[in-house]
Fold these 2 entries.
Entry 1:
Amino acid sequence: QNQLDSQDACAISPTAIVSDACASYSTLERLNRNVKPALDDLTQTTDFFSYYRLNLFSNTCPFWSDENGMCGNIACAVETLDNEEDIPEVWRASELGKLEGPLAEHPGKQVQKEKPKKPLQGSLGENVGESCVVDYDDECDERDYCVPDDAGTTGKGEYVSLLRNPERFTGYAGDGARQVWDAIYRENCFQRSSFPQSASLGGPAQARGPAAMDFKAVMEAAGRKEVLEQERQQNPLTPFVAKTGLEHEDECLEKRVFYRVISGMHASISTHLCWDFLNQTTGQWQPNVACYVNRLHNHPERISNLYFNYALLTRAIAKLGPHLGEGGPYTFCTGDHDQDAETRAKVLAVTENASSVPQIFDENIMFKNGEGPSLKEDFRNRFRNVSRLMDCVGCDKCRLWGKLQTAGYGTALKVLFEFDNNNEDIPVLRRTELVALFNTYARLSSSLAAIQKFRAMVEQPETATVEEKSPKAKLSDLPDWATKPRHVVAPDADVKATGKAEAQEEEPFEEFEMPRSEYQEPSLSDQFKDEFAHVVAAFKLVMRGYVNFPVNLVRIAWSELKRGYRQFLGLPVGPRRWKLERPSLHDDL
Ligand SMILES: Cc1cc2nc3c(=O)[nH]c(=O)nc-3n(C[C@H](O)[C@H](O)[C@H](O)COP(=O)(O)OP(=O)(O)OC[C@H]3O[C@@H](n4cnc5c(N)ncnc54)[C@H](O)[C@@H]3O)c2cc1C
């Protein structure tokens, strides 16, 4: 228990304690070295664990729409490069975010009965053991922490290959992505009625319907947003996701756990996108150390949260282990006995490895002290809202992994808090939950491995490539590299003047370089033509400015009026869609 408040929580050293879980970084890293091979084998070689069923396209974002000025779609969510038209289509965010491989629709009960061995009728490929892939149980359980993906929609979802769609850099960024993260973190505002000292302020949480919960969440969000906006007026650098003071009202272990789960999931996503990063100007997939330094290394608490999640999932997997054996309630492949046995053996290899350390997370200390039931309900509802928020993610691949991981954490929480080993009534997990749980564990496992490698690269910079080394080179700095016209470089002079590193940094732009011997001073007439083109371009720009001014003014006034009105009503206010910037002659030349 002393470890809970350990000041060492943020330091990343082998002996530092991952607070709220009783394990050190080195224990978890050692554990991961044993678990990872079995986990990779399970998630990469079995049909059961390499396909996931979810509703990717038929659910709409229940929290905002583009009409409200919030941006959830890919078109306005991409800001990695200023002008994506300059790069090949395959490197653009719109392409990187698309799903690959076949999609198979969930078969109806009739087909499942008629074709028990081939219910998907070969739509995922001929060699796929379909009886391992199809989810026979469509029902939900009120103990779920996630919105079961087929709930409330007509479609029953599609099966997607996780192997064909690895979690990696997609270029999804900008206001849309921030909006989602911001809303996810806002779910961390627990209602005061969950706590004994304020229980009289409101009825028990379970008396409220989901719509009322959503409404309350939106109202709370608006309050937080207002505080943030006021803060930003004084300090424009206040981050989008910042503490407002409101969240400190009810600091408790459960709330901390909720925050840590979300932040750890965010850290794991960031790790994967930095590890499997596409340099959109060269087309090379490679680890990006600068990305890691900016998003993780400089924020040790995020890494600590990632390790915390690893401890949490290890505990859930270890706790579930005894229920997954032969004779238990789980069948992995109904139509293929051999594949079923093989999958089970691989599952047990993972759970046995996960159980090889003493209990590293004590779930029994949560939801005690009298306020347990309502706090637990609140916890669950907030987690469900996070899972609904995934429908607001404007990139298919990110949505797939976002949904899978929220479902994975939801399942882990269900196992930790709803599986009472002394109780007969133990919930049986659905296929989707099992797949999500083990794949989320695999994500964390590969994040831990990547972070260790990244740390080594930072400690021994010579192993990193030049572009990766510069911690100053933020992801958002890429636009300048990619789109600004570059001057002709005389290579020798530059190498001498700036050293080897900068000469290599120029590498991606080799096509712009010209050997000194071929370089010629432009003629007088060329210079005149060039100057004249600039004058014409400036004239066009000024004239266009005059013509467009009234229309722009009306548009700005209208959009500000709408934002002001929403703020007045206490509804979430979308980001500004206009900005003042210096004009560029570039397009007119
Ligand atoms: C559900 C989801 C899934 C995504 N999946 C992918 C993907 O697979 N591939 C991909 O390339 N992009 C993905 N993205 C986008 C990616 O997460 C970032 O939003 C994007 O790269 C822009 O990053 P950013 O630097 O603006 O900061 P963001 O990562 O968007 O973070 C926003 C703010 O949150 C805070 N923050 C950041 N990390 C943490 C943390 N761990 N804990 C607490 N606070 C934190 C910081 O204040 C930061 O400024 C996904 C986004 C979402 C919402």
Entry 2:
Amino acid sequence: MGEDREMEFVDCYASYRPRLIWDPRVSDYLSQAYGQQHFAQISEALTRPSVYSCVRVNTLQTTTKEVIKQLTRYVLQQQNDNQSRMLKQTEFQEKSSEAGDPHCAEKADVTGTKLSRIQVGGTISAESTSEEDEGSESCGICFQHDVLDNVVMVKGKGPCSIDYTTVRGEGGVLKEVVVSRKCAEAVLRGAHVFVPGVLACSGCIEKDELVAVSVAMERSDGEGGWFVGVTRGTTLSSEHAKSQFNDEDRSGWFIGIGRAMMTRATLFREAKGVAVEMVHRAYNLPPFSGVLSGDIFLQNLPSVVATHVLDPQPGERILDMCAAPGGKTTGIATLMGDKGEVIALDRSHSKVLDIVRLAQEMKLTCIQAIKMDALKSVRVESTPDRISQDKPLGEVSNTARLTEAVAIDDIITNSTSEEPNIIEECSKKHLREESAQILAENVGGSKRDEASTISSTRPNSEATPAKKFKDDGAYASRKAARKEARKLKTELKKAAEPETPYRNGFAPQSFDRVLLDAPCSALGLRPRLFAGQETLDGLRQHANYQRRLIDQAVQLVRPNGTLVYSTCTLNPGENEGVVRYVLDTYPFVSLSPQHPQIGGPGLVGGEDVFDGATHRPWLRKGEEQLVQRFDPVGPRDTIGFFVAKFSVAAH
Ligand SMILES: C[S@@+](CC[C@H](N)C(=O)[O-])C[C@H]1O[C@@H](n2cnc3c(N)ncnc32)[C@H](O)[C@@H]1O
């Protein structure tokens, strides 16, 4: 019986073989645009991460050579750490087997002999995993990009075929953890599994035990919608799980093996933390979070190319219309030597704060991040550029203090039940004082009144509703503390926001260069495990939105200035379709050659929309070489991306 199960299990779960699901009409449309075979290759490539991580160097703080040196050391360290994890695991299995678990004995044997036999790129690698060998393999793992000298490429491994027989439990049944799609996509990029990403797991999982990690994928509800069906906390042997999963559906959706960092019970009780530390991954890429902070920025290669294509010069005035989280903004500022003015817009307040944080981390001072709807970025009335001259935007002290206050609030919001004191202390002492101070010191007269309102909500104040606090002034409940914290956070955000400059937008023709890295359907992003949610209607809506954004962008470029338009989608309607729209609508705008030219040509032709009633054209013959398209199937192994560069003549 056990033998049979094992065979079945090895057949079903031997490798990562995901199938990307599309809305059928979108699939037809893209098949027509790219050709059936090419689209099938694109679909396959999208499910994998690139094996290259691309790191942009902050050349104002360090050098490419130094980054290569540091990253090589880091990658080696990562490999050693992985090896230690494997050893630790082997020891754990051995201990379990000594304790008399026959299945663990089998596992220990398998683990001990097979962990180094991971298939790499389809061939069995050498058994040797000695430090020396790992070291020599690492030489050349980090290297300078062949065209862009401010870019370091770090080569990972994949696809790796993983031997899941090491994670069998009693009776040959797989010990496993099922994670959400978003979590799986992060794991494929090098992350561990964090608690919120876990949806289901086997009935009995102990700390330190090896588990297979798979993804709970969307499935059709038969009425044009999609559902996952697995709720957090599901036990895999339960009736609910059996009705949601069947082995055939899940074949190919296993993304690696990890070590459980907590028992099953703890895993579903906790709100945060690492749930499973990945030991083997279908794609082995080093994580970069927190590595060489401020000196490097992990960025997709085409995004770096887009900032180079913009060709920003020191002293110029540049607008980045849809800027958060600020990858391209900071790239632009760095290319300008931090000299000039880079105005970065985003419509989301919290995302604007992300830009500010990134600029501070990279020590860039020429960036002004502003919360603004780019659809309203052209000034309509003859109002002055700045509303408030005495309160310049991005006043560091103000922003830094807001960041601090928001961080305190985040501690409160994210703290676990074991940390009630943190909640109370933070809420009572810091957050309240911080809020009152920010309000009182940093904002104008009308907001001072708000400051006193907040101060007057102190626990001991007479105005305080009795039930919110205990007699000693502490919050009566966790819920009350959180509610208060959220309220304060909103008020703090509003109050610490500087007087909005450019409230009425920017004067027409007031920028040397404009970058519109437009919000899009993001169909080029990798790894992508599901694409069913994107409909033809949705794609058209994105294109319409981009047309409205680019209408604004064209008006903001000075005569003989430059406009760069980019997206991370494969949808020609959002790429070539928008370029056609610009060329046909604005006779003074023309396509410019790009440098560097790393991607391939654009698509000539068009699409029939609204069931053939309207034809939306793309590029005309001769124009295709003036844009660049990054193809996930191409030799550069990048995300799908599109860049067009326009020159705006006097008009
Ligand atoms: C593709 S992302 C930009 C990525 C960014 N350029 C980078 O490289 O880091 C698009 C951004 O546009 C923002 N956005 C969407 N609509 C907007 C609008 N009307 N005005 C300003 N920002 C907008 C979104 O909040 C999102 O952060």
